[in-house]
Fold this protein.
Amino acid sequence: MPLVHMGDMLRHAYEDGYAVAAFDVVSLDFISGIIAAAEERQAPVIISLAESHFEYFKFELLMSAVVTAARETSVPVAIHLDHGQSVESAIAGINSGCTGVMVDTSDLSLVENIRNTKAVVTMAHGCGIPVEGELGYVPGVEGEDAERHPGEVIYTTAAEAKAYVDETGVDFLAVSVGTVHGRMDGEPRIDFDRLSEINQAVGIPLVIHGGTGLSDDQYRQLINNGVTKINYYTALSDAAGRCIGENARVEGRAGYTAMVKGVAEAIRKEAARCIGIWGSAGKSGQLLSRCRPWKPVAHVIVYNTEGLVAEGVDEMMAVGRQVLSAIPGVTEVFTGHAVQEDAEYRHCWVVRFTDRKVIDSYRDHPDHQQFADQRFRPYAGGRISIDYEESL
Ligand code: 13P
């Protein structure tokens, strides 16, 4: 299963001098096109879902497809929540299967940005998940004309970056050095001296947002100065849009499938082009041997109850499913009754964790303790409890 630790992935890129593509997806065609490009180029890839796009699809639904695609492919993949704005967003991302999360509260004051970022880092690290923070401001909106969203670039400074990284413990830092999100006329002017200073000050993998529209030379200079993850969406979206426009012109009256024909292929082409420029092509094999594979854990309890009628057991299970599935790092709560009449244990919980670190953070979480103390343990009879790590 080539879902790998994103921290290992970006550390390798940082030390080896290349950048991993982080492509935002909004549909199945995006997922298929991006995975096809990564396989063709034998490159690691990050599939991102941006919170600003959640009005276009149901997050949990698209995540299921992303997780399936990531588990089926042969190249190393990480799944990332892009531009998450709160601890709640980060928990929703992790519990849906993200293996990395971004917290973007860069529009707040430095003090508040540090406070919010720290809260996300504490929660996510308790789940074994790395965090990307952002300092400075990259204006614009992914997929739209940059001049329609003309906010000022707020540049990241090396001194603030050092303080932010030290205080928050983020694993990767998104910096603002002159790029903008979205479509722009001409190339942006990038402050490479500033980027070099930031890189020397923080010494952790750096991230560029607003990856569309730079020259090949600009990409190379970014990578030479510590950039290991390039976020990219607008050019993929435009390639898809051109394909649909052409289908409409040629087909005239056409339905949905005729309109979107070729979209995945258009996305594959553009994604493969980027991977070629950013140096990650051919890194798949080496990276797979260096990265820890992602291994979820199943926390299994088989048990009997005492002093509860059947409806009481079902009610306790329903409350448990609701309460426990909201705890950070819990990706699924399954409750069941034994099929065999003579089974030694009549009921079970199978609580799936994103990572073995969640065994401790879940056990100590106040919502788990309250549920266990008030709803489960008073009625639990004989039981066996074991944690299983996924075998690959
Ligand atoms: P572009 O849309 O400019 O490629 O930027 C994407 C991005 O930064 C996503 O976070």
The first strand starts at residue 20 and ends at 24.
